[in-house]
Amino acid sequence: MTTKKLTIRQKLLVAGTLFGMFFGAGNLIFPVHLGQMAGRNAIPAMIGFIITAVGIPVFGVAAIGITHSDGLQTLAGKVSKGYGIFFTCLLYLTIGPLFAIPRCATVSFTTGVAPMLGDSGAEWLYLLIFSAVFFAFVLFFSLRPGKITVWIGKIINPIFLIFFAVLMIAALLAPGAAASAVEPVAAYQSDAFFPSLIEGYGTMDAIAGLAFGIVVIDVIRRMGVTNDDAIAEDVLSSGLLTGLLMALIYVVSILVGAQSRGLFELSENGGVALTQIAGHYLGGVGQLILAVTITFACLKTSIGLVTACAETFDKMTGGKFSYRGWAILFTAFSFAVSNVGLSAIINYSIPVLMLIYPPAIALITLAFIGRFFGHDRIVYIAVMIPTWIAALFDFMKTLPGSAQTALHLEAPIRFAAANLPLFDKNLG
Fold first, then answer.
1. Residue 421 belongs to what H/E stretch?
2. Over the stretch 291-321, which tens digit does the pLDDT of each residue have?
3. Which of 169, 208, 281, 296 has the highest local Cβ count within 10 Å?
């Protein structure tokens, strides 16, 4: 009896679905800004960024498949049942209402509305109004799940990708400066590889991959593949196809970002950089198309994330607090967070990502090599304890200076700097 596997066409469909889930606000703004910072050191920056923004996310999706898990909670539960609940909550809150969902609204505002305001002193008010409307739509569709996200995904994503391709080609054909002539910022002067690894954390795709894995597995099962080993193989191959497309987009975006330094000063964030580049090469119309397509793409992503988070917490609480209640709570909280602004969201997300990424990477690694030790719980625990200790030190180090002082963290940070290898590169 032959085991059914996906055809090439089906793998492309699964890869397209996975790309649609992965590619959101962070995937647009971080590579362009990275290019501006890395300048002539763009190549090592590309390598570092692709490892954490493409490689680890693809293996994160595959980790769910290869362990035949029915979701993140089951995979993390290999450490312990309580840890499975804790890590699932932390991860979903990070890719949900704490950072990723608010960031979708602020990226849309930064690329669409902010450029039209000029030096208006009331930008905070416009952000408040815009985010209120944005999250009203998010809540409306999250409470009425239907074909809206599919429709937007099928129409808006292709339009955006076509427009984005035109923008990138226009920028490559008429660069503001050769990337080799652009001076890197201080952090990227001597070694662009390690800072770029950490910059890749900002996409949040590695932790999102652990959440998306079960969705991809369900899609493959609906296509008629029932054998667990065949599913794991199809998840990995489809993920690799997605990874190739994302890597191509990142390489081009980083290069265009570096070349844009011949036209613009280093931007405050990637949303500003992308808007400036679109305005320069495609004029006001191009800027408007960019704003509209990004807004709809971010709206789709936000609806999907609110839905996923609400469903997950509804399931974890056994329905004691309804899906509707979770959806309203997460939307309201995301609205509040979005009003601190894009740069603030990025800055505050860094310590949390420094905390959650190491255990996520460790969990993915253990999933792949688990067959060599029979997925023994003792091994999972023995790996996770020192991983969390190192991650806590990195978390402390990347907190704002005022928080470090208030919490008296200077001594433990000095201890880690003296004793933890690679701590100076944020890779303790």
1. none
2. 887 888 788 888 888 988 998 899 888 888 9
3. 208
